[in-house]
Amino acid sequence: MTRVDRLRTRLTTAGRRLRRVARIARWELGQSTSSYNRRTLAVIAVLVVVVASVGTSAVALGVASPSPNTDIYRVGVADNSPYNAVIDDHASLTARPPDRTALATGEIDLLIGGVRQPAAGPGPRSPTLLVEPADGEKGDAALTAFRSAVQSYNDRAMALEPNRTAAYPVIVELQYIPQSTLGPAAPTNAGNLTGDDTSADDADGGDGTDTDANDTDTNGTISDADGGTADGGGDNTTGTDRTEGDAPPVADGGGGSLLDRALFGGGTSGSPAEIQPPFPFGSLLLAFLFLVPMNFVIQSYGSSILNERISRRGELLLVAPVERLDIVAGKTLPYAAIAVAVTAVIAAAIGGSLLSVAAVVPIAMTFLAATFLGAMFARSFKELTFVTITITVFLTSYVFIPSIFTNVTPIALISPLTLVVMELQGEAVTLGSYLFSTGPFYTSAGVLFLLGTGVYREEDMFSQKPVPLKFLDALDARLSGIRSVGVLTALFLPFVFIAELLAIAVLFVLPIEVSIPLMLVVIAAVEEVAKSVHVFAGFESDRFDRSVRTALLLGIASGIGFFVAEKFTAVAQLVGLPNLQLGEAALQPAGIGITPSTSLLLLAGPLVLHTVTAGVAALGARKNLRWYLVSLVAATAIHAAYNFGVVTLYG
Amino acid sequence: MIEVSGLRKTYGDFAAVVGSEFEIDRGEIFGVVGPNGAGKTTTLKMLAGLIEPTSGTATVAGYDAGDPEMRHQLGFLPEESPLYEDMTARSYLRFFADLYDVPREVASERIESTLDRLDLDYRDRRLGDVSKGMKRKVAIARSLVNDPDVLIYDEPASGLDPLTTNSVLEFTEELREDDKTVIFSAHNLYHVESVCDRVVIMNEGRIIARGSVADIREQYGETTYHVYSDTALDGTDPTADGRHRAVVETMAEVEAIQAAATDAGGSVTDIRTDEPSLESIFLELTGQQMPSPRTARDTEPASEPTTDQHEVEDAP
Predict the structure, then answer these.
(1) Model confidence pLDDT, tens digit, residues A582-618
(2) Fewer CB within 10 Å of terminal CB in chain B, N or C?
(3) Which family, according to the similarity comment (chain B) (predicted)?
């Protein structure tokens, strides 16, 4: 057979496989949609259309939320007063003729008087509006509502002002810097403004008039709005104030879309009013926006996979001339497509680009892969429910919690959601950051699918083995010889990486004296499990003979596999994680971030360490579970001691 | 068409199948019988490539069991074959035809002709809404959608009413005329006996008997004679109708009883020949509890012999 013939054969085979995958995907889509009652779907569709229509119409008509507070406060105001517009724009306020008698009799709740110009000498230096509330709680409430109305009106007016410099003469840019660089004497809760303006403590700028016109004296007067200097910004921030003469750029509010502004407030640059202290609201909302739909997708996906097993329907597909991988691909494709489509729509709605989609897709893939493996292990829908809830809680926490610290610490980058936050804040995302965030997710998803596909076979699909035994089966299915042990160990690295980074994220709040030793032990334990659990699976299934020689060979193979894969953690350097003390503790024992003079020693060190400890664990694994656990503890102790030694010597 | 050599499957310390060996020719209907847990289904699934043997080899239509190409030549009907109940018979069969790369036109024609042969109506009704017999027929039609050379049927008539069972058995026999090779497993040994050319009997993972039903009957069973007389004789037992019966294994013994009856002033009124059924051989070979007529010489048989009856009123 010539090379061309071989190529043609391969292409034909690939084409056939793709056709089968597409056919299974089409069938799966039909199955999943037909599992819902058509009448129910029709009712839901009608409801969605009705709600969307009503909502759109209501928004268009400005009556989206008919409030019980509508026109509740009657404000006496002259016809020619500019505050008529303020009152008209506010739902709870309604204008009435300005009549002091009406105020006394309770027919109006607030009386707008004249404007008092600033007098020479001490006192307010801006014009003051005289407002008189009626006696009682309703009068006070009306005054509060009126203040809010004035503030909102002014904000809107400023936002519409074409001359941005005039509207926002002071622009503040926030720069978050690591707390460690401030030094021990640095204040922990005060701003550290650079430049020549006021300090952060000097809130409500004392020597100028406010832009937001919300200063109110105790007598119920409101200072007029005519612009002024800004206050110093929020806590824990540094900023640079610009004056008019600096010709500052137009404040961008930190993002493009309206929703983006709503998510992230003023962002990191803009007028003082737009600057807000870091708050995870945006991350929180993003987590819900992106992750909630995924939960529906995985429920449906997991049910479909388990249905194939519980009812034994999947047996007939296994007899058909279709590769297991193609069956899994075909069954997964519709759900993956739905997850990507939903992600794309949400990303577009919040002003994200393709980067946001590319950041969330690996999360979706991991959701699906974990669900697939869980559905392959679960013996009932009850167990599947437990599995999907566990996946949801773990993955949601993993992607949500770090993204809270987007502007605080590089650890946040362990979550791909942080990339979305960064994009929406207008920050650049490097390729290294993208790989660092999403790499473990992509690889984890691949490995989980690989393990699940390994047990997508008659012997495991339709049996009621306990979950731990199925897990061992899944591992064993991917073993063939000594080399495969090393490969599987290497493939586990993303999980090791995720576990270690999660440990860093959890432990970094503890005092450094506690967190670092704890971290070194946790890391040792995680790595030793990753290097030995499949070796144990191989011995349990009698794939390997239980001789000492075989155990040592498997240990060496596993240690080498881990060592090689571990070098990939060098990507952490791209995002500066080792610059953190905790990151150093976590990653430097592996030989990362060290000086060239010690690099040779520390290159050989981890190799010896990993092969020795993997060998120790394999010696126990060849006997039985109890001996495996004992040897695992011993291997962890050796590994942890090594980690302490490296940190002590080079830390 | 099928060659099995040293086929073995173990699960830990448990051996499900131990060293099975047999060959099946093209166009043959081959029965696999045995009690529950004998290893029948495991053997069939190893042949279908669903279960990987621990050791040994199995080739089907010239391919190793499990080879993707082999699957194109195979139709498999598992004991339980739940269908996708939201699909219709036609859409279900077309789906599998697509997976087997059967061209659309060919698939449509084949599906319709198979459904015609199986006398299956309601082809566009949801499979969830049709009877169990209809579902089984659809499953059988699915096994033929790729026009395979080899068919593996595990309990094809399981749980069906007598009418549908007969229909399924007749259809299975017709497959022989189509030159299909069929491996047939059933609990109801009458079905196996009536359809299969050759059988193997399995017990505890091993093949304990093999050959045609006639061969096995000759090899493992013995013909017995139930001799009824109107006089009590040595070695006879009274029956419910007032006669006396002896169960013997040779014609010489029959003649001796006849002579004894005449000497006692009576006569032999009936002689019935009992040829062993596959079931009785199976029960005896597998050590099951049900006693065979041959070993129940001194007790009432579980059922009256029904084969080869002789009226001997005019016997000497």
Answers:
(1) 455 455 544 444 555 566 666 777 888 899 999 999 9
(2) C
(3) Belongs to the ABC transporter superfamily.
User: Do A174 and A200 lie in a common domain?
Assistant: yes
Residue A7 in any domain: the answer is: no
Question: In terms of CA atoms, which chain A residue is nearest residue B143?
Answer: A316
**Chain position carrying tokens 């500019």:** A82
The answer to whether A321 contacts B48, with C-beta atoms less than 8 Å apart, is no
Q: Chain B residue with minimal CA distance to A312? A: B82
Query: Does residue B149 sit within a domain?
Result: yes
B47 touching A, CB under 8 A?
no
> Same domain, yes or no, for A444 and A340?
yes
Could B50 and A316 be called an inter-chain contact, meaning their C-beta atoms sit closer than 8 Å? no
- Same domain, yes or no, for B109 and B172? yes
Q: Could you give phi then psi for residue A413, rounded to 5 degrees?
A: -70, -5
CB A415, CB A277: distance < 8 Å: no
In this predicted model, what pLDDT tens digit does every residue of A407-464 receive, in sequence order? 656 667 778 888 888 787 777 788 878 888 888 899 889 999 999 998 898 888 888 7
The helix-helix angle for A596-621 and A512-540 (nearest 10°) equals 50
Chain A residues with at least one Cβ partner in B under 8 Å: 16, 19-20, 23-24, 27, 30-31, 34-35, 311-313, 315-323, 457-459
Express each pLDDT in B106-148 by its tens digit.
Answer: 999 999 988 888 888 878 888 888 888 888 889 989 999 999 9
| Chain A CB within 8 Å of residue B13 CB | no
Q: Determine the structural domain holding residue B289 and report its residue range.
A: 223-311
Residue of A nearest to B92 (CA): A27
Residues A98 and A195 in one domain: no
Neighbour tally for A151: CB within 10 Å: 17
| Domain termination residue (choose one: B175, B203, B218) | B218
For the cut 60, the answer to whether the pLDDT of residue B311 exceeds it is: no
Q: Which residues of chain B are within 8 Å of residue A311 when distances are taken between CB atoms?
A: 82
Confidence of residue A253 (pLDDT cuts 50, 70, 90): very low
- Are A366 and A497 in a shared domain? no
Strand-by-strand arrangement of the B14-24 sheet: B14-24, B2-11, B55-60, B63-64
Q: pLDDT tens-digit profile of B20-57?
A: 888 998 889 999 888 888 888 899 999 998 888 888 88
pLDDT: is A183 or B60 the higher one? B60
CB contact under 8 A, B86 and A31: yes
Please count the CA atoms within 13 angstroms of the CA of A208 that sit on its side-chain side: 19
Residue among A31, A312, A322 minimizing CB distance to B99: A322
Q: Verify that A520 and A608 share a domain, yes or no.
A: yes
Q: Are the C-beta atoms of A569 and A590 separated by less than 8 Å?
A: yes
Q: Are residues B235 and B284 in the same domain?
A: yes
Domain that holds residue A422: 286-478
Percent of chain A with pLDDT over 90: 17
What digits encode the pLDDT tens for the residues A547-584? 999 999 999 999 999 988 887 665 555 555 545 544 55
Residues B76 and B97 in one domain: yes
Q: At what angle do helices A548-566 and A596-621 cross, to 10 degrees?
A: 140
Number of folded domains in chain B?
2
Question: How far apart (Å, rounded) are the C-alpha atoms in residues A155 and B201?
Answer: 90
Q: Which amino acid is at A582?
A: L
Cβ atoms of A433 and A575 within 8 Å: the answer is yes
Could you give the percent of chain A with pLDDT greater than 70?
A: 69
Q: How confident is the model at residue A337 (pLDDT cuts 50, 70, 90)?
A: very high
Average pLDDT, chain A: 75
Of the three residues A125, A140, A160, the one that is the final residue of a domain is A160
Domain count, chain A: 4
Asked if residue A495 lies in contact with residue A530, where contact means CB atoms within 8 angstroms, the answer is yes
Q: Is the dihedral of CA A263, A266, A269, A270 positive or negative?
A: positive
Domain boundary among B218, B238, B258: B218
In a domain, B102, yes or no: yes
Q: Which residue bears the tokens 């900023």?
A: A239
- Rounded to an integer, the average pLDDT of A629-638 is 93
